[in-house]
């Protein structure tokens, strides 16, 4: 059984202060995909670097911003940083690690909540990402794209769909993009294992006791090729941990 966890840490240094290595020691995932490191590689806390994991990072050029990482108990056979689009790669948003049985990506899509310019860049990212992802569908290894896509796909994935229908992260064009991604042949593994179940969220605002009231958004995914959906046995959002404003999304695969 292969246990893969994905977590937007909202700053790896802050997450460590909140108990990140305790969470790792307790659950012992085989692979951990991290997003929004908000640190350069040398700033990753020593307790994280000293764990019994191989660690790779793709950090942003801008200090204290974005960045992704993958921690794995098994050493990757190959690593690739970025997707070949200059501004995306400068922001440290896509990281790949290939293993013997599968290929894993850590993905951090831009947020469009700070204004029209960033929303346009978010849509540019999505447009570039779709053909990039498609090329991995028919390869000899299954693939999973883990991470924060900053989009709720359907009304069941957000606590107040009517009020948020014109909000970045739930815009019609963003939701249509997720539909297109899935229609290409990918699977939303967590949702497929929890079909029709409401109130399952992975991010909560720090305001208004949103997590305590479970007024959240499901924006963190395992997007996989069909073979991995068939192998998926158990999917959990680990709400009990307060490592950041996101919760780890963990899936066990029979690999």
TrEMBL record:
Alphabetical list of InterPro entries matching this protein: AP_endonuc_1, Endo/exonu/phosph_ase_sf, Endo/exonuclease/phosphatase
GO terms (molecular function) for this protein are: DNA-(apurinic or apyrimidinic site) endonuclease activity; double-stranded DNA 3'-5' DNA exonuclease activity; metal ion binding; phosphoric diester hydrolase activity
Query: Where on this chain does Mg(2+) bind?
Result: 8, 36, 148, 150, 245-246
Gene Ontology terms: biological process:
base-excision repair
Listed A to Z, the keywords are: Hydrolase, Magnesium, Manganese, Metal-binding
Query: Which residues are catalytic?
Result: 108, 148 (proton donor/acceptor), 246 (proton acceptor)
Family in the record: Belongs to the DNA repair enzymes AP/ExoA family.
Name by which UniProt lists this protein: Exodeoxyribonuclease-3
Q: What does UniProt list as this organism's lineage?
A: Bacteria, Pseudomonadati, Balneolota, Balneolia, Balneolales
